[in-house]
Amino acid sequence: MRVTKAVITAAGRQQRSLPLQTLIDSDGHSKPILTILVEEVLRAGIEQVAVVVCPGDEVPYGHAVGSYASRITFVPQDEPQGYGHAIFCANPFTQGEPFLHLVSDHLPIARGQLGCAEDLVQTAQRNDCAVSAVQASRESLLPYFGAVGAKRVANSARLYLVERVLEKPTPTDAEQWLGVPGLRAGHYLCFFGMHVLTPAVMTILGRLLAATPAGVTLSDALNELPQHERYLALESNGRRVDVGSRYGILSAQVALALSGRDREWVLRELLELLATDELDRGHDE
Amino acid sequence: MSNSPFIETIVSSRQDVRNRSLASLCQGLNLAQLSEACAALDAFRRSATNLFERVRAITFLYALHRFHLPPLLGNAPAGRIPYAAYQHLLERRFEEAIDGFLTQASSAGLSEGISSALAQAYYQLAFQTLADQVRHSVRSFAGNRWMFRMGHALDHPLRIAPPLLQRDPETGVRPVLVESTPVRMDLTHSGWSDIFFLGMDYPEGARVINVSIDLAVRGRDPLPQPPVSAFVRVIDEPILRLASIDLGAQAEIDTIGEVFDYARDYLGLLKAAVIASGIVPPGIEGGGQALADLLAQVVGPGCGLELVSHVRGIPKGSRLAVSTTLLSALIAALMRATGQIRALAGTLQEHERRQVAARAILGEWLAGSGGGWQDSGGVWPGIKLIHGVISGEGDPEYGISRGRLLPAHVALGPEQVPPRMRQALQDSLILVHGGMAQNVGPILEMVTERYLLRSPAEWQARQEAGAILDEVLRVLRQGSVRQLGQATTRNFFGPITTMIPWATNLFVESIVAEAQQVLGEDYWGFMMLGGMSGGGMGFMVAPEARSRAQHSLHEIMLRNKAALEHALPFAMEPVVYDFAINEQGSMAQLLRGENALMPGPYYALALPQLLRLNRHTLSAGRRAELDLLARAVRTRPDMAPTAGLLIDALLPANGGITAGGSELDQLLAEHGFDRQEHEQIRRDMRSGLIGLSQNRLPLASEIRDASPEDVLRVPEQDGSLYARGLEALAQGSVAVVTLAGGVGSRWTQGAGVVKAINPFARLGGAQRTFIEVHLAKSARTAQLAGAAVPHAITTSYLTHKPIADVLAAGHNYGYAGPLYLSPGRSIGLRMVPTARDLKFAWEELSQQLLDEQAQKVRESLNAALMAWAVGMGEASDYVDNLPAQCIAPIGHWYEVPNLLRNGVLAQMLDAHPQLQYLMLHNIDTLGASLDPHIVGYLLDRDIRLAVEVVPRRIHDRGGGLARVDGRLRLVEGLAIPHEEQEFDLTYYNSNTFWLQIDALLGLFGLDRGTLRDPAAVDAAIRSMARRVPTYVTLKEVKKRWGHGQEDVYPVAQYEKLWGDMTALPEWQGAYLAVPSRRGQQLKEREQLDSWYRDGSAGYVEALCGWD
Known about the structure:
Chain A is an alpha/beta fold.
């Protein structure tokens, strides 16, 4: 399997300006979030990128990605019919090929030399199947993510065979269906916001959307996938930052800075800030 | 050790060996051999890793010490029970307690006292071990575990379902989620096989046929409906607003601590649901978090939840698992509201039902209650077979118990129960509530114990019950209600009552017999619902006779209840139901827009308070809701009854039950109530001059045990003494006086039942009352002596008429001898206790600590009762109940002087001038009899006053025989300055006195002549009364309200006790050491079962002449 296409969903009506927010990337350059994401997928060997957008966002987003615009296809989602529908809007773009999928409100930040998307795509290509990047997360985070129930793949430290997927499960459901041997109590494999998906996923999405036009999630489709084909989860080495959450932009910026070339300078600045703040507080008291 | 047949029975893999009874193993063994078996079992249970093997060994040890060893102890010296070990027992340090008792046994030899202590310690250890396992399994159940991990509000992983947050654009009101759940009816439970412990050890035998039903009270409700509903709504305040419509209680909770305070009000079940649903998970208890922060996380900033429960007038004790069903409905509603159940409306999926059931078990444990695993059966639809499941790999129980905690539910479809049978069942089965509401808990423990011991008759009965369940399944398939009735009748009068004789009672047997007689051929059978009879029951009748039968059964129950209402604890008037099988199980609806209202009675509860508030202080949501209510009441025909309810609530016509006013005053006046003395006592109580701590003798009092030579032992086989005694009896020299002035508040937890006429056990082939037994003993003595035995029964205002009526109706139970009733002349008015006395009773006196959660509930209840006492006014008159529950006899001391004062003794002497002795005994000392040996002994030694004492066993609390400051006397437990001093006493007071009449009169300064002078008698009694101490005691009293609801309150009363006569210098009496069987008193119903099984009942039966 070779993955050459990527689909980034950025059609959330509440967060239209989010991909346009500018951050200083780990290379020290100032970029919109969308550009950072595009660079992440290109680094993984992707050749063509589709960005699913609200109608009318094509132009500002096109400006934001600058020189990458030529490799990007904007796919409008005409009606806000949910996450599953947004991905399915890219069906004509993927044309029955496997594709890398990222959400635009999560920023992946690699810990090693290999980019998060790069790691994921290589794993998918090596195993010739759909793979979702996951991260062991405390159960208090369950309301924010999809999560998988899986078994560890023999002789692999980071790969799991997925059996079930639930979107934002309650801990009650998670305990019953999403237990993963080897994980700490109260921890589950939650989505990282990054997947390599096979054409079967589009087929399932299409069927689910035909039955229920609105409210279908990617997790609904992924929950069906193991019945049809092998589907793996890769425990990512990187970290994800939910840029759409409260202080998400700040967290993303700090995380990018600490993983990049300005790390020492930023650390120094942060320490100084903290120390001064503490001293001031001491004086106040 | 492994050679012991006792241990082999426990560990064997062979069923026939495992199922050997303990009794068969003990057959023919002597004391030394049984002691050896005990040592082997104790060593085994300490090292056993398998939970159920350990529990069975512990239960064997309990039974050996309770039933098998004491009869072999013969004349072994009465031993002492070490106080330190007893304290360990109270504190639930069972291992230390057992070690302490065993050390005492090995140094001083085994005695009745030590055996009783070991029996209790082993018993409690066995049930604690089982309870711990159930708790562990509930906590380990997948889906429950996270709730114990979560410790901080910000970590809360639940979120409210978004539709519940959305206000209706028209009305401004948020939707209301309603969960409606049928209750469960149990056609056969195979011998209470749904008890958790049984299902987990014997999953093959754990089977029930469980039917989900809707109910209507006949004559009140038009159509059967799911009896239980729970309502949830998001509100605009960061609080939990809880309301129980049926209990008329509501509260706004703004701290997490209060959520865990179960017994503070009537909302314990709702709080348990809030916790068990995970909204305020158990892991957060005691963490000091703010409820508002938690609710902000789950519901949204500034928001909270309202939870309302509604039971449609189905009385308590229905045996239809109403409270578990309500808990399940509340939990299901809250789980839907937080996405733990996927659909906000409609039925549940199978795994969701199982989760609700597991949470309901958790909730019951939290609230300190609990039944069987079938009780949440109403969550499932229709008719189902629920059965135990053998645990497998992956189950938390695997390797620990043979069975899983939760059973499997197999729906019985049209092939197993054809539609015509379902209809036939509804046409022929009449469900009723007999009006009795009894605690079924002790029965569940008895069942478990018998199962573990494999007692032959009961084990056989268990197998029969299993066969009857198979028969019922066959009959359901074939479609014959008549055969079903035959099977359930056989089940009740066969296996059920063989296993647990206490599952039946005189009321049930009477109504079944009458129903059979009245309905004739149309009567098809009887069925007990749930744990025991007297409450919920079923009758099967020919369908064409249904209406007539419903009417007849109601009449029969009313008539029998009227006849027995002083003898048995009834909580309410009997009712008859209509029912329908519910084929959906628990269902939810989302009420939106104009329909988003709570049920009408909710507003009757909430509105009076709301109207007191300024409208502008209400939240926008609350204002919108009230506007919606106002519109609905005016325009919606279905809301018309609500208007009436609202008016009733705002302008109440009736102030509720209270004894205040003329009725009580009149009663007090009629019965010689001494207001002056009462006021003096009140002043003394308030000032602290008298009270529980002041009951005690001075701290400096020297209290020592009696020495062996202080007591006399009547030779048991002395022919000449026997002949002399029999001759005296033949001459009519001895009469019996049975003290029956008290109601026996411990017997029914203050239900106000007259204990003397309580049909407490089946003896001589019929249900017998205490008085009946005492008269049967007198009849037997009369037969033996060939002469009538005069028998007097002392009464009080509370007991006189019921006793007289029962005797009149039953022709003195066939007693042919002279029978006298000695009416009481003294009456006291109960008082609200002082906080000081409550504190003393609960905090300074030793109390049996309960299991962790039950103890929390008890402490919460005690705090609530303390607040009640302070709120009502300490030492104020207790008048907030029926008059009979507000007054009390003032101790049995007065019952003896009353014989003098009311002329009964004089009458007896007129009729029987040869009368010399009175044997005076408590109503509950069933073994007391006119034993010719004792009579002969007294005459031979010229003993004029004597008291019978018995070796003290662990339950015998309340004083005993002691040397107090050098004088040998009886000392009341209330009066002993240090609790541990009681444990130094070898003998317990049986309260059976032998009084030579002239000596008795002499004590009062009277003789046979002055006995005829009322003024002299009055003066003598008054003078003596001043010399006898008055004790303040706390008693429990039940207050009944609503639909079979009962609250138990502590009340203070004062009393004088006859045993204190022994402290007078002029009392020159002897102390006779008699066997326990003769002197033991039945104070609590829980004692009955072992009394029945340890040979005591047989001993008493042999003393009786029933004809």
